[in-house]
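WARN retry 2 of 3 for item q-0093 after timeout on previous attempt; input resubmitted unchanged.
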Amino acid sequence: MLTSLANPLVKQIRKLHRSKSRVEQQLFLLEGTHLLAEACATQWPLSTVCYTLAWQQKYPSLLQQASFLAQRLELVSPNVLQAIATTVHPDGVVATACSRQRLVNLSSLGLVLETVQDPGNLGTIIRTTAAAGGEGIVLSDDSVDLEHPKVLRASAGQWFRLPIALSLDLETEIQRYKDQGMQIVATQPAAPLTYWDLDLRSPTLILLGNEGAGLSSRLIRLADQQVTIPLRQGVESLNVAISAALILYEAQRQRTTKA
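OK item q-0093 returned
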C-alpha cells in the first residue's frame, strides 16, 4: 500500500491539479466511481488508478474493468487519496487518464462556445447537449480547460461520450459548416427574433458566447439569424448553460412535434 505523500507518483498526480501540468504530461484526473465507470464504459485509456482498500472491497468488478485499461494500479491509504484528489470528500478512487485528440463532425445540431470560462458551465453544457440530442460542441481554445476536474464532474460522464473539439480559428470553423448548409444562429440580447420563433428543424449551429461579454462581433457577423431569450424587466441575463438548454430543447421540441 502506498502511504507516503513524498512518493514520486503522488507528486506527479498532484501536479495534474494545474492545467499546465495536464498539458505537459498529456494526462488528466478522473475523480470518483462514476467518472471511472464512464471511462471504462467508453474504453478510455487510463494511466494510473489509485484506490483505497474500502473502495476495492465495494467495487471489485469496476476495478477489474479498469485493470484492462490502466497501465498501473495502486492501492493507497486514505490520506494519500485525499492528497491527490481535488474534491473535499473523495469517494475512494482517483485515476489519471490519457489525453487524446477529440474530433467533432456536425451535420444536424451542434454548439459553438466562445471563451466560456466557468468549468461548471462547460460541464453542464456538455451534459445538456448530450441529453437534448446535440451532436457535439466546438470550443474556442481560450475557453476553460476542457480537462478541468470540475468540467468532467459537471458533465456527469457525458464528457467521454459527446464529441468536443477545440478550435484555434472559430471563424473558419463556422464558415466551413455554413458552406455545408448549416444555418448559423447567434444568441444576442437585442435580437429581433425569440429563439422559439426560429425554424430549428433544419441543420443548425448555435453560437454562445462568454458569460460576461457574450459573442464577439466577428462571430455575430457570420450568423444567418440572431435570436434572443426574452427576459422579464429587471432581469439582466441568463446563465450560458441555461441559455444552451433552452435553445437545444426548443430544437428538439420542433423536431419531434408533428406538424
